[in-house]
Amino acid sequence: MKKLFLASITLSVLAFIFLVSQTGCTKSDPVRTDSTSTVCKHTIVGLWTGSSTNVAGSGQAWSVSIRPDGTVSYENTIHDTRQLAVGSWELKHDTLTFTTVGVYGYSIFQGAVQTWTAKYDSTTGTLSNGTYVTTSPSADSGTFTLTEVNNTCTPAIQGLWTGSSVNAAGSGQAWSVSLRPDGTASYENTIYDTRQLAVGTWTLKNDTLTFSTVAVYGYSIFQGTEQTWTAKYNATTGTLTNGTYVTTYPAADSGTFTLTVVQ
User: Fold this and answer.
1) The pTM is what?
2) What is the 3-state secondary structure (H, E, C) of 1-55?
């Protein structure tokens, strides 16, 4: 009986040691770093969509591209005319401020100088209390809302992408591409110190991204240019590869491009 009793105690002690050691291993497991982990942080840079409304109650949908290099631009449509405004942004503490100048669109809005301000919550990745003032050519003010496209730290094709394009002759430039949830697409670049804007639509079929654009603003010889852009999209990593393009009008051209999502 005494031997059985001692054996029972020994087994109990071993079982307790095993349980403690297993619990200790669980506590020391590495922290997850996938898309569901708290390691993933929101940032202010990216593509944002929403609407703006002036004091008279007139408003429209718009999209804002906030880039890592400190530049910003917005697009909207007024009286069936596409608008483009460009400028710079800064984030101080929880306050986002960006100032823009209208460079393309409905004639009375070209040259419009505006300052936009909102509160940014870096924990939730949201903007609130958006207000703006127009100081030139006439005074105006209003409010705006913006929600970031692709701010969940999970790969998605929608959003702001930046990279470069190079034609067959080896000439190229940096550019940014906006792929919006409504199926519209646009890109911006600078040629001969002149800002360019091209607009169009995009589709994703299986792993192939295709977007077609028409240049609507910029250096005169490029206005009206029609192009089709194609790349392979990896939904797991959220990356684009094998980017190629063809220009079909006004003259034939082709080349390659690279894009990395801003997130």
Assistant:
1) 0.83
2) CHHHHHHHHHHHHHHHHHHHHHHHHHHCCCCCCCCCCCCCCCCCCEEEEEEEEEC
